[in-house]
Amino acid sequence: MGKTRSAPTLNDVAKAAGVSTATVSRCLNSPERVVESTRKRVMQAVESLGYTPNFAARVMAANRSFTIGAIIPTMDNAIFARGLQEFQDQLRESGYTLLVSSSAYDPEVEREQIRTLVARGADGLLLIGYARDAEIYNYLEQHQIPSLVAWSYDPRVQRPSVGFSNTAAMGELARKVILTGHRQIAMISGKTKGNDRAQSRVEGVRLAMTENSLDPDTLTLIETTYEIEKGAEALRKLMNLSPRPTVVICGNDVLAAGALREARNLGIQVPEQLSITGFDDIELAEIVSPSLTTVHVPHREMGRKAAQELVEMVEGRSEGRSVCIDTRMVVRHSLAGPPDLP
Amino acid sequence: MGKTRSAPTLNDVAKAAGVSTATVSRCLNSPERVVESTRKRVMQAVESLGYTPNFAARVMAANRSFTIGAIIPTMDNAIFARGLQEFQDQLRESGYTLLVSSSAYDPEVEREQIRTLVARGADGLLLIGYARDAEIYNYLEQHQIPSLVAWSYDPRVQRPSVGFSNTAAMGELARKVILTGHRQIAMISGKTKGNDRAQSRVEGVRLAMTENSLDPDTLTLIETTYEIEKGAEALRKLMNLSPRPTVVICGNDVLAAGALREARNLGIQVPEQLSITGFDDIELAEIVSPSLTTVHVPHREMGRKAAQELVEMVEGRSEGRSVCIDTRMVVRHSLAGPPDLP
């Protein structure tokens, strides 16, 4: 009984040539982008193994730049970094290069960047959140550029997305806060204008209040930009209120780290005198003291699945599906019951 | 005496149309990239003010994509984020869009990304550090793509860069460590292979030791990737040595944060029983407890100056100059004298 000799795969060629599969597909599809010594090695491996790339795939490939664009709101903190690195690594496995642009949460800048990436020949785009002018989505449709939304998931929206329900995730945390006994609730949120993630997180807190017979209008809300310094500033304002809130729910871990730092500066014990919570579970959340009770967002998983789906869309194998990623609450040390009344 | 009526500027047009100067230059140079309503508003302002863009500048502009590429080693932490955001903001002032790629510290990936950005029409490139194959620099020269190095500055290297001397910056900190009384010195460094910043920081420590009559070969050196978890791991190893180092100099703040966390887990008091230092002065450095003695790198200033220089190069007004940015030591609470001998 002899071994069945199966057709050589891309992987076999990559191994024989000592390069990545991404490099092999590049050699086959855009040889001008591969340095000559590598190209020779790969083509020798292709020949000696008798590798034949799928013909239909090659015809389709001919029109592609093997470049994917992503536009994120900011590079200035770790929120998007981790998911994006995984997104890129996964794209690279499929032979695509990622180009990233950052809009600084400005819709006009985002629009320019989308046009730049399309003008530069991007095969597909990753966008953060749903909220943008219909005109932009129309533009992408006219240019036949597949786009995928990440970081948001809402089954009511008819648009492919790989994300999570910000409302449900923050709602779970807020219910825990209320169950712990808090009634004087404040929230430091990112700016909600044009940011559906921030809007949904505020909505999650309000829904949890309503469910527990608290008037959602009693929520003290400060909106600010996602910076440590801004979280600190907002906390200072909240501590000047009377009565003081007993818990500050923060729109993300960066704001919570700032709030925590300011509480320390003001000599307020967390969580004995004041509870503070975060969102995202970036590395910071575990390092600060006390460590943050927060919502864990599986950024890497989201990045990986978004890359897989977007490649399927770009290569015409999917019309665009939506994937809901599970988040979970992480209980650490920054949340406790409210202090006893004086 | 009447007012002199000077020629209207780009700025005047922008104000009249209620848009950014970047949008005005885009309207003039790549009108297809601007949404119609905005374009109309801008062209009305151009007409009513009688604005005439400099003709020579427009001819040169015709060959440009107004896109700049930057390739950074990683998006996965804050080290490059801040400088890059400022780099982008400054580019935007001049009408350029930034596209970023991350090489994951892999020279083969970086090479692919450089070729992709050139193929996508980038007018110029920002690269981190000097260390890469001559072949890449030749390729860029052949394609007449100006490139600027950032994060490194070495007057011996004939290549335009906006950066700082990693050797001098780390040397200053190491001298302070030695003056404080430490003799058992360990260092947790980033991987030095292909990373001139990491190499120079190790060199800075060794030079400071030599200057102070300490044998640089007695430096205990662990190389690892720039991750919190890896900093923690490395500290664990160092604490198993006998004699134990009395100070751990870390190649950056991320490694230092990990080392600090692990020291806490092991019940080792910092700085009473062990001193730990960082590098970069990212926000983390001030938030961890005790706060980190580190080297402050003015990332925003570096980003801004790099953008200004690269635009000058792309627009043919500079052959490429080098700028040395000043760093400074920041003394906080993680460094003290060595513990008394038993």
UniProtKB/TrEMBL annotation, chains A, B:
Domain HTH lacI-type, chain residue ranges per copy: 8-62
Highest taxon in the source lineage: Bacteria
Entries under CDD domains matching the protein: HTH_LacI (cd01392), PBP1_LacI-like (cd06273)
Keyword set includes Iron: no
Any Pfam family the entry gives: Peripla_BP_3
Annotated keywords: DNA-binding, Transcription, Transcription regulation
SUPFAM superfamilies named in the record: lambda repressor-like DNA-binding domains (SSF47413), Periplasmic binding protein-like I (SSF53822)
InterPro entries: HTH_LacI, LacI/GalR-like_sensor, Lambda_DNA-bd_dom_sf, Peripla_BP_I
SMART domains: HTH_LACI (SM00354)
Classification via PROSITE patterns: HTH_LACI_2 (PS50932)
Coiled-coil intervals, chain numbering: none
Example of a GO MF term: transcription cis-regulatory region binding
Stated name of the protein: LacI family transcriptional regulator
